[in-house]
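User: quick one - fold this with xanthosine-5'-monophosphate bound?
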Amino acid sequence: MTAQDIHADRILVLDFGSPFTQLIARRIRGIGVFCEIHPFDVGEDVIRAFNPRGIILSGAPEVAQFSDMPAVPQWVFDLQLPVLGLGYGMHAMAQQFGGQVQGAAERQFATVRVDVIAANALLDGVRDTATAVSPSGLDVLISHGEQVTVLPLGFNAIASTESCAIAGIADATRNYYGLQFHPEETQTTQGLAIISRFVLDICGCAGLWTPANIVEDAIAKVRAQVGNRKVLLGLSGGVDSSVVAALLHKAIGDQLTCVFVDHGLLRLHEGDQVMRMFAQNMGVKVIRVDAEQRYLDLLKGVTDPETKRKIIGRTFIEIFDEESSKLEGIDFLAQGTIYPDVIESASIKGGKSVAVKSHHNVGGLPEDMKFELVEPLRELFKDEVRKLGVELGLPHDMVYRHPFPGPGLGVRILGEVTKEYADMLRLADHIFIEELRKAGWYDKTSQAFAVFLPVRSVGVVNEERRYAWVVSLRAIETIDFMTARWAHLPYELLETVSGRIITEIEGISRVVYDVSSKPPATIEWE
Ligand code: XMP
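Assistant: Sure. Structure tokens for the protein plus xanthosine-5'-monophosphate:
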């Protein structure tokens, strides 16, 4: 079999700041087509070099006023490629071709039924179950904000709802399409079919972007970059660094050395599990550094969350630095950078993000290290990284594990970190996760964990008075971890967990459940 170029057919997602932009790209990738997100003001030469087969124009940020938004750059249309505008993307395109758009004070989203009112290549044959009222309908998530009120030249209306006469537009000659609704959202039940229609049929892309092909491509690239030289990887046990380890091991075998810094703030048995999986089972060269005592000494008496984070992050880098300087002949440092990290550092989010906590990325690069970088996941979204992990033979439970912060239990033990607290918290967390899994709730929550509260409370356990510590359980549901809802776990489940924690862990006398959503609360307590 000749190697296929899995990047040959690609789609450009031009970002005008919508919170759904990444979702659009993830859907396209899920269909098996490579795509990249670029900000609307990216240079024309970058896009000409990128050479897409079609362009999707994203929506706008929720708070943006139509009149303040930038126009679609002329080069988008000069390229003579199929274009699909979503929300703002549709409105901007309509206005630029002579249509009219009526503003709205506020944008709201609702699920409604739209009628497909004219034959067109985008929606023909894509239908939800017909109802008597709406025989040609689609159930969609639509925005009640601005609307196209006068069609642009060369376009016809292809979809409408009761309150929005022009909910979709098409110019079949130039292959330009616009939708008022959001096919990337799961509430639009045929959304994936619509995006497939655009990228596969209208743009003519082949579906080569599959996990097996991505692995093959990444291996070839790593081999070409690294040759017979040596690579160092900071292994944390998290999904990204684990997938990098599995991938590099497959690509370059013994030329890979991993350093696993065990800061003693990991979950129950986690350090041993990492060693078992990578060193024992897979034969990866892993140097485990047992740094628990060093961390405990440094964290002694430290109660301020930011100071704790800084100590944990800085020490990680110091240890990693010490270990790597003992190794000879290393030329490359591998990192689990993924595509959202790449986009976010080059995004147009309007500078509104506030640094709430200093996020410390375990595996962060010490600035004075003279290594070349190997970043085999740079093009991938998290869901793709997971699929790759499964493709590479990592256990499903490991690959689909909830995220765990770099500073570990250090930010889940409020105030001073001690070994005693960490040991109790590890057990409580283990019980919580075990019961969640048993009850089938683990995969329904995005993240769940226990938090150690250094306050004491009275209880009576086995007829004995106990004055002991408090643990809070936290479970959330989220898509992007930017906002999150506390999970509405069944009372019976909470009861089982709380009962087990209090009877099985002597130092704990009370369990509470955190019912704070984000915002305003953050997911972690510190
Ligand atoms: P917050 O607490 O900011 O958490 O709402 C959002 C997500 O980020 C994770 N998190 C971290 N991950 N290093 C990490 O690698 C960190 O310092 C860190 N702090 C928070 C948190 O677990 C949640 O998934």
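One thing worth noting: The chain has 15 helices and 20 strands.
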